[in-house]
Queue: 2 jobs
Job 1
Amino acid sequence: MSVTPIHPADLSDVARLIAKQNANPETQCLYSGERAEEIEAALRKQTAPCYVVAREGRTLIGAMGCEVEEERGYLQGPFVDGADFDAVADALWSALQMQIASLTGWEAFLHVRNERGAAFYLRQGFRRGQTAQIYVLSASALQPIEGEPARRFTPECAAGVRALHELAFADSPDSIEPFMNGDDETRCLFVYVDKGRCVGYVAASVNDNPREGSIDLLAVDASVRNRGYGRRLLLTAAHWLIRERGMPQVGLTVRDMRADARGLYQRSGFRLLHTGVGYAREFPTNKRR
Ligand SMILES: CC(C)(COP(=O)(O)OP(=O)(O)OC[C@H]1O[C@@H](n2cnc3c(N)ncnc32)[C@H](O)[C@@H]1OP(=O)(O)O)[C@@H](O)C(=O)NCCC(=O)NCCS
């Protein structure tokens, strides 16, 4: 077996290998694409995709990659076709780590039924994180907004949105700041204002590949929950993504612990697509101050 960095000539073969593995929940790695054309297009868009491939003779038998964002490595794979999974996965992982230096940590997100992937990450010193559900709303299931839609964010709501975000997502690294920049065409922030006070917000974004809208953050002040504001925010964002931005579907990921939100998504036309489990390994010595 030989393991090498990916070469541009490998991209379509690698995309096909990933699509095949991702078609089966038992070998599926989430957030790495499902259709070969989309996976290939996403790889081609990157100037130097951080991927390694394994071959037996001339046959491609495995691939593993990583996207780096804010010094964290988001892993894709290991994808192994047929052969000895453990040996190929270990070889891919060693080669991949050599390509990337100075991260604060690694993360992976696998289908809950991908047991061989789970065993691999645990063996490599990762810890199992939370279970999360991926939901999707197709354009044909979009429901009407009852009552006034939520309104677009304006800078006078900034302090209110920040305060809500800190309370609702204290344990999450996701920032609300990029959504407050009104000039960004790929993102939108809506707020719900009650008696002059910002009591809820929803952050949405548009993705090219796969072409899909996404609901990134949603929160309503605890003092005014169960009045329908959450649903109105969610549907306002879904209408913006589907009707205004032409997205064929809208996706979102919700952690298991947020049971309130799951009920709301299901009643609002979203259907459960996948259940996944996160794995993470930290490097405390590289932590940013
Ligand atoms: C999830 C969240 C945004 C929901 O906000 P909300 O304003 O309470 O949402 P809604 O009022 O539209 O719906 C919540 C419930 O109230 C009920 N409800 C809505 N209007 C109602 C009314 N007029 N009278 C009584 N009940 C009502 C809904 O039926 C719904 O119940 P269900 O989920 O069991 O079906 C809010 O709980 C929250 O901020 N949670 C913390 C952050 C979070 O988890 N965000 C999602 C992360 S992915």
Note: The chain has two domains: 2-131+278-286, 143-268.
Job 2
Amino acid sequence: MRNSASCKLARLHSLLSFLTVAVLALPIAALGAQAPPAASDPTVLLLEKLSNAPGPPGAEEPVRAIMVAEMKPLAGSLRYDGLGSVIAQQGTAGPRIMIDAHMDELGGMVRRITPNGLLTMQMLGGWLDQALVDQRWTILGSKGPVHAVTGIRDIHVVPADERNRVYPRNGLTLDIGAFTAEQAAAMGIEPGDPVVPDSPFTVLNGSDNYLGKAWDDRVGCAVLIEAMQRTAHSAHPNQLFYVATTQEEIGLRGARTASQIVKPEIGIAIEGGITGDVYGGHPEETQEKLGAGPGIFLYDSSTLPNRKLVARVKQTAAASAIPVQFDLVQGYGDDSAEMQASNGGTPTVNLVVPVRYTHAHNGIMNRKDFDQMVTLVVDLVNGLDQKTVDALRDFTPPAAP
Ligand SMILES: [Zn+2]
């Protein structure tokens, strides 16, 4: 096989082969690798389990099973809304505080099986077309998981003037190794089957950075569980509703229905944040860096946070020596918008664990950011009581002097 770029490619290939051999010859210590975290680290295991679980919008069952198993022993009661959101309650008296993360992830749905056994796909959530080509996917078929790849056009036959083009999503197909529609059906595939990225969790080279899919918002789900573990034993005068919602990525739908049941007086969303520390950054929208602490959303296109609650988060973080970062992102919405618009209006804030490369097959989160977020959430809710909640909800102008 040859094409016009093949000579250059051949030279590059032999250089890469040499470098690979040279790097492999170095002792591991010379590369700066550290010992990987203990396989028994419960936080790593929790994050791994949540990241690997398939759960596109409307098909959150595997994630819900994990959340219920973790939350039920820590909750006084647990129930569901009619869209499958999980509502776990601690405490039965005091102000109603809702702490929210969503279970669903970016994904898709099988549209149609073509006569030659390929599948077309309806995307669910905000994907870039360039993120879709040449990726591995898992289809949740009726006979179990089916491996798939979105094919890529072959460079040998792509005209030179098309090589820099992004191939649009409507031309993409999922290849499952079937040659006919009958073979695809025999694998347990039919229209409507959920599709998710296939991207196994990895601790990145002994660092405290974790590579995986669906950090938006499985990192928030893990924060919910670890915060619940701590508030189960802390003396606070509040009713805490830990809520794992559904269908956030297609319009905050579970947050709306769960809020109708919880009727929160204060709402705290826990999300994946947007870092600005790669690809030149976007300083007008995010100043977040991976590993530099949890973030607070000051603006997004779905909601404005309550300013007194933002001030309280900042004070709480300062008292615990936790650095906080800020996001003001225009193309972003989150569950706090639905909590805010519920129960006659609710003070809310969206707190985020920074993530590189959200809404893609492979994202990176940082363990220190995660641990600090858990502490921040726990300190925040432990510091609330009827008096502070009343003050946050009070819009009476100060008396004239
Ligand atoms: Zn999200």
Note: The two ends are 85 Å apart (CA to CA).
